Amino acid sequence: MSDLRLSGKVAMVVGAGQTPGRTIGNGRATAILFAREGARVVAVDRDLDAAQATVDQIGAEGGEAFAVQADVTSETDITAMIAACVDRWNRLDILHNNAGISIAGGDAPISEIDAAAFDRVTAVNLQSMVISCKHALAVMRRQGSGAIVNISSLAAVINYPFVAYRTSKAGVITMTQHIAITNARYGIRANVILPGLIDTPMAIENRVGRGGATREEVIAERNSHVPLGNKMGTGWDVARAALFLASEEASFITGATLTVDGGQSLVTG
Ligand code: NAP
Questions:
Q1: How far is the CA of 195 from the centre of ligand 1 (A)?
Q2: Half-sphere exposure (Cβ direction) of 80: Cα atoms closer than 13 Å
Q3: Which among 63, 181, 210, 247 is least surrounded, fewest beta carbons within 10 Å?
Q4: Which residue from 22, 26, 71, 125 has its CB within 8 A of the most atoms of ligand 1, so it is best to mutate?
Q5: In CATH, 10-203+234-258 is 3.50.4.10
């Protein structure tokens, strides 16, 4: 008997590549950690090379994974990514939805947002998860088991300046609760993570240069908001929370919202 926490499981991580940068993204860290814990991993990203880099890292550690290119704003691509997983391994135990954008999608404050940017950000952050869950659930219902972990954001519940990111990430919470209650009878769990300030390339690289800010200033400003250690979290912090929710250790947990923020949400002053 293996004591690995995801032994025998097939996991799909959507958004398993990452924006280039100096640190590890939430999706790549999650894919690697799932594989370390015994899961076979499908690494999905719109950038095949980025997904393949994750797969290569898993392979170098002795794990099993393959990469699939998919733009998750396309239902055709989503159908194909689920089919690729079932064709290869004949099941899908864990769906981890990590793809998300904000500033890169043209997000803006309510006074400046335009319809196209709102649609773009919402399509990547919310619609993609609705449609990927729809297709994954068809497989999981046939199995009579499955675990879904969706990545929202603390931005959904605090004073975040950009409207499309905040509202789409809030939608992810409600959508996950909806899936949890409508699929409990099939033995399927669905939970949502709210990361706070995490030191990932998407968070840092997109902000460097905005308003003349240097990388060091961006990092210092974000660190200053975190009560626990005055330091942002890392992709590994989010990955460990996802591992718990995806594993049998969370077998009685569904519809839960797990905040991973170093205490930031406790600061009211
Ligand atoms: P990341 O490393 O850049 O990961 C996001 C991945 O999703 C990237 O590989 C990205 O590809 C991919 N992606 C974007 N649009 C896609 C699409 N249409 N189809 C398929 N893949 C797509 O970013 P991260 O910082 O780890 O963030 C991951 C998740 O955590 C996001 O949902 C984000 O909102 C959430 N989050 C992050 C923070 C934080 O502080 N970092 C805080 C709260 C929540 P490209 O590089 O090509 O865009």
A1: 12
A2: 14
A3: 210
A4: 26
A5: no
